[in-house]
Specification:
Blueprint (H helix, E strand, L loop, with lengths): L2 H21 L4 H14 L3 H18 L2 H8 L11 H17 L3 H16 L4 H21 L3 H14 L1 H6 L1 H17 L3 H13 L9 H17 L3 H18 L2 H17 L3 H36 L10 H26 L5 H19 L10 E4 L2 E4 H16 L10 H8 L3 H12 L3 H19 L8 H7 L5 H12 L3 H21 L1
Antiparallel strand pairs: 1-2
Helix pairs in contact: 1-2, 1-3, 2-3, 3-4, 3-5, 4-5, 4-15, 5-6, 5-7, 6-7, 7-8, 7-10, 8-10, 10-11, 10-12, 11-12, 12-13, 12-14, 13-14, 14-15, 15-19, 16-17, 16-18, 19-20, 22-23
Keywords: Coiled coil, DNA-binding, Membrane, Transcription, Transcription regulation, Transmembrane, Transmembrane helix
Organism: Mangrovimonas cancribranchiae
GO molecular function, one term: sequence-specific DNA binding
Length: about 525
């Protein structure tokens, strides 16, 4: 191969790389075509790794995490020949992808590792560019973990550390403003959030290029803020702009979120026909997102295993785990006993039926709790072999999950929970079925209904809230799905249950006034 041919090939690939990079956030489908060509014709591991980065970015923009995983964890990204800058960028993408799949511990690990690599970069421009990207990613991790206070602290530090870089790069400043908006919004500081989202949008005039993905995110955030303020018309306008941009890049997750906010908007403004249209679309997209997440988690699990990077946390202290399980069961029994004693006085017959139901449900729940002595070293069911260690690890995580409020997350799915547990969906589904005698959806729904019942019982304000609010509060996507599930579990509608609680409280007040 002569020198001219090699030089010419490198020059052409550099031009193609620049073109693909420009297309990633404006036309990801075209960027994918160009990047695939670069990957096929690349002559070195470095060029192949750069093509993998472009492909991973493009699929992330489209919300296709499954395909992004394939390119982020490609073998060429791990060879010694690739540059330090490329390794840093790959690691930032890994951290972002793992965060989006709710694998927060793994995401944090890659961020920490990357932080050390950034310090070793000799080029100041590269250090600022990649250091800023990493800092923003770390702040987003805080936000996804619902740690908005820490996110704001991190963002303020980023603002100070990269002030000169931000002054020279309006697109970076826009990203900082957008992330700050989310942090303030998560802290219910909507006035501050509105300032930052308007600042971000105002930079569209000076930001070079047409970052369609960024614009979809900004107008989605603006529409959501207006919705929080019950400014339904302004919210609708902003969300339609976001919908147009999200449709261009065909990002299923963004489209789902925008349609959900439009459905809520129309429900709150009593536009029932529009609500049905966008709620139906939201439900379709929600199923698609759940499928993507499930495929992505399984693919990621296999990729990590194949690359020797699998980091499942398996606690080998079995006796300690079993003891914790028994303690939790004992605590549930005591809680049930206290509940029955407290409710045994001044109860009407209809409310007594509810208590009996809850008693039976809780007793059945305790009966289906893990029985460690029945666990065999390896258990095969429906072709699935789960080791004792893996099974016990999943059980311990399920115990912690039940005590948390993560089941209230509307986006919680089998794939999401498997991702958080750092296992695959088949193992998790099998363990839930074995020890709780439920499929995943029923398991989550019972936790949600149990939560809202407790809120109705302990907080007098809850009986005055609309059913749609209660549905959203405990993680259901719609009023109708909440009512259907509640009735299937409790045996009566939420409205009837609330009326019975009101009657009970009225009776208790009358008795107290007499005494």
């Amino acid at each position: 191969m002569n020198v001219f041919f090699v030089t010419n090939a490198y020059s052409q690939q550099s031009d193609l790389y620049t073109k693909a990079e420009e297309l990633v956030s404006t036309n990801p489908d075209e960027a994918i075509k160009v990047s695939e060509h670069i990957l096929k014709t690349a002559l070195t591991p470095q060029k192949k790794a750069l093509a993998n980065i472009l492909l991973a970015k493009s699929y992330l923009i489209k919300g296709d995490y499954n395909k992004a995983i394939t390119y982020v964890f490609d073998e060429y990204n791990f060879v010694e020949e690739i540059s330090l800058e490329t390794k840093v960028e790959v690691n930032i993408l890994k951290s972002e992808l793992l965060r989006k799949l709710y694998l927060y511990n793994l995401s944090d690990d890659f961020s920490a590792e990357t932080q050390d690599l950034v310090k070793k970069l000799s080029n100041k421009n590269q250090q600022d560019y990649l250091g800023f990207k990493l800092s923003i990613e770390q702040s987003k991790l805080f936000l996804d973990k619902r740690e908005a206070k820490h996110a704001l602290e991190s963002l303020n530090e980023t603002d100070v550390r990269y002030r000169t870089y931000l002054e020279d790069h309006p697109e970076a400043r826009q990203e900082l403003y957008l992330t700050k908006e989310r942090a303030f919004s998560d802290r219910s500081q909507n006035d501050s959030a509105m300032v930052y989202i308007n600042n971000a949008i105002s930079l569209n005039a000076v930001v070079q290029g047409k970052n369609v993905y960024q614009k979809a995110q900004m107008y989605k955030a603006l529409g959501h803020l207006y919705l929080q303020q019950r400014a339904f018309k302004q919210s609708e306008e902003a969300l339609f702009i976001a919908l147009r941009f999200a449709s261009i890049i065909e990002n299923t997750t963004l489209l789902m979120q925008i349609n959900q906010d439009l459905a809520v908007n129309y429900l709150a403004s009593n536009k029932k026909s529009q609500h049905k249209v966008y709620n139906d679309e939201f439900l379709v997209l929600n199923n698609q997102v759940e499928q993507i997440e499930q495929e992505s988690i399984n693919n990621l699990y296999n990729q990590l295993q194949n690359l020797g990077e699998r980091s499942l946390e398996i606690n080998k202290e079995k006796q300690s785990r079993l003891r914790n399980i028994f303690l939790i069961c004992a605590l549930l029994v005591l809680t049930l006993g206290a509940f029955v004693v407290f409710k045994s006085e001044s109860r009407k017959k209809r409310l007594r039926e509810i208590i009996n139901y809850l008693e039976i449900s809780r007793t059945n729940y305790l009966k289906t709790r893990p029985k460690p002595k029945t666990i065999s070293k390896k258990r095969k069911t429906k072709g699935i072999v789960i080791s004792e260690e893996t099974e016990n690890a999943i059980l311990a995580k399920l115990n912690r999950f039940e005590k948390s409020k993560k089941f209230l997350n509307k986006d919680m799915s089998l794939a999401v929970l498997a991702g958080q547990f750092e296992t695959n969906t088949k193992y998790l589904s099998e363990v839930i079925h074995k020890y709780y005698n439920d499929n995943f959806n029923t398991f989550i729904n019972k936790l949600r209904v149990d939560y809202i019942i407790k809120q109705l019982q302990k907080d007098p304000n809850y009986v005055n809230y609309k059913i749609s609010f209660l549905a959203e509060e405990c993680g259901f996507s719609s009023h109708s799905s909440f009512t259907t599930v509640f009735k299937s579990i409790v045996g009566m509608s939420p409205a009837k249950f609330i009326n019975l609680i009101r009657e009970e409280r009225k009776e208790l007040k009358e008795q107290q006034s007499v005494s």
